[in-house]
């Protein structure tokens, strides 16, 4: 079953935390090599408050087999509590374009390899464009429900 058309992962790395641990943690989301699979990966620079430097890491997946591998890896790294929280918050995480949004605590993923949902800004941002046919909210909610209910 196809769950998504597009997956986009983004994270901000601030100068004072060092880019390499953030990049390493970012790459752990992907159970494959981005370069070998010709995945659109970007690193851009921005200026934050007080002229601090920010690196922005971003990758987008559109190939069905890579999307599937990514989602399988994501589900394997989520515990039952996190999956249940996602299921309980389905409505609020799905927008009118049928894009589904999750945020994962950056420090817990970097330091403990544990995916924990967060509402804070210090996080990995995940956008999943849901494959719903026809493109209706109710169908998209069922697709997400099926995805996060899988055993």
What fraction, in percent, of the residue positions are helical? 25-40%
Q: Strand-and-helix sequence, N→C?
A: EHEEHHHEHEH
User: Major sheet: order of its strands?
Assistant: 2-3-1-5-4
- Write down the CATH topology: 50s Ribosomal Protein L5, Chain: A
Number of helices: 6
Shape: globular
Q: What is the number of beta strands?
A: 5
Architecture per CATH nomenclature, i.e. the level-2 architecture: 2-Layer Sandwich
Task: Report mean pLDDT, rounded to a whole number.
Answer: 93
Any idea of the CATH class? Alpha Beta
The number of domains is 1
What structural class should be given to the helix and strand makeup?
alpha+beta
Gyration radius over CA: 16 Å
Extract low-pLDDT stretches. Answer: none
Strand content: 25-35%
What order do the helices and strands come in, and which of them pair?
Elements (H helix, E strand, L loop, with lengths): L3 E11 L4 H10 L11 E8 L5 E9 L2 H14 L2 H9 L1 H4 L5 E7 H7 L10 E8 L6 H13 L2
Antiparallel strand pairs: 1-3, 1-5, 2-3, 4-5
Helix pairs in contact: 3-6
Task: Supply database-style keywords.
151 residues; five-stranded antiparallel beta sheet; 50s Ribosomal Protein L5, Chain: A; alpha+beta; 28% strand; globular
Structure commentary:
This protein has 151 residues and is an alpha+beta fold. The two termini are 15 Å apart. It has one domain (4-149): Ribosomal protein L5 (50s Ribosomal Protein L5, Chain: A, 2-Layer Sandwich). Strand 2 and strand 3 (53-61) form a beta hairpin. It has helices at 19-28, 64-77, 80-88, 90-93, 106-112, 137-149, and strands at residues 4-14, 40-47, 53-61, 99-105, 123-130. A five-stranded antiparallel β-sheet has the order 2-3-1-5-4. The mean pLDDT is 93. It has six helices and five strands, in the order βαββαααβαβα.
